[in-house]
Amino acid sequence: MEKVKVVPCLDMMNGRIVKGVHFKDMIDAGDPKECIARYCQEGADEIWMLDIKASEEGRATNLEMIRKAAEICTAPLCIGGGIKSLDDVDAVMEAGARKVGIGSAALHNDEVVRRASYKYGVSAVTALVDVFKNDRGEYEVMDAGQKPSGKLLEPWVRQLKEWGAGEILLTSMQDGAKTGYDLEATRIAAAAASPLPVIASGGAGELDHFAQAVTQAGAQGVLAASVFHTGKFSIAQVKDYLESKGIPVMRGEEFDLDAIRFDEKGLVPAIAQDASTGVVLMLAYMNRASLQQTLKTRLATYYSRSRQELWVKGATSGNLQHVREVRYDCDGDAVLLKVDQQGVACHTGSYSCFFNPLMTLSGGRSSAMGARILQSVYDQVEDRKAHPKEGSYTNQLLAKGVDKIGKKVVEEAAEVLIAAKNQVPEEVRFETADLMYHLTVLLSQQGMCWDDIFAELENRHR
Questions:
Q1: Which domain holds residue 411?
Q2: Rg (alpha carbons) of the chain, rounded to whole number
Q3: Which pLDDT belongs to residue 144?
Q4: What is the pTM of this model?
Q5: 388 with 281, same domain?
Q6: How far apart are CA 12 and CA 50, in angstroms?
């Protein structure tokens, strides 16, 4: 049996925790800072914050709320509510979330889960599924926790799994009733989601309810709110009870580093690689403590051999490395970090530290930034859109709209073809760069970005 997570949930309204019964009659349930500090101390495996009115009111989630929570939260902070697009996911992750919950948005946009999963990884994306039993006795998914969607639970969970959700957080209309989890709904979801974990939510009121969700319904995590907020049970009590029933539980984030072969000085070389483009960014060193901190915080943390201390990459410059994945090589004597690089990696101002050419074979010319250069060009176009500059060609294109931009895309595509037919590689390269620039302007004008295109190519490649 997999180790079970015990997770407290904070339903948020106007900066305060609220609780109700059956999603109604909300009352104040406490200060989020006090609860977060207590839950972290008690050993919460994750902490969920749900901005419960964001989707209903058609607004984004409260980013300031997330930033304040992230400052004090030592457990993984998970955020849901009001996440409708990849831009919303980006904003929430940048504010300090380690995981996002996507609920009603997936009912209206079949790309949002796929794009978030593509960019941040399966483990960072949870599908929020609220259900009720309809007049036909079927479990139906609720839209924004308020109205029937017409989607049935089992096929909907299978669809979410196919799109790239990493787990299912299932909440039934028993939420707040303290009569126990909906075991039937949880069983259906767990069978459909397998091998993805299902987190049971809604209705926990007694210690045995937590055990029942695992042993009778196949949940791999149990979430509760009221019983934790009121102090009826602590997270530690729930874990102790589950273990007394023979159910293994998580005791903090556990990472086995026995496979890593630290050298005689206790160090291992660590290579940072751009997770999106594969560009090698830098080489540094880690000791056991810095590797543990990296795994816990998801921020690349290294060991300085000269200062003999840990250092968080970008802590002073702002050029943080958000870690998506950590691997080690076949001998265990090198570590690879796949990261989202914020800003540049090198202290010289270069994106990658590996910018000095030593030898380039024929046909081996490459860019230190790889596909990242497309994002850099896109960022410049977005900056021109936000801050127009007199005489800017980009601003001229944007001002004339899609017809002018589209005409230039067609013209540049023709130039690429002509250069290719003339068999002049230098012109093919030059004209293709022109085409990519104009495509970037077109994407910006359409409210899209290159990540949208990468995600579409990824979907076709599966």
A1: 372-461
A2: 25
A3: 74
A4: 0.65
A5: no
A6: 6
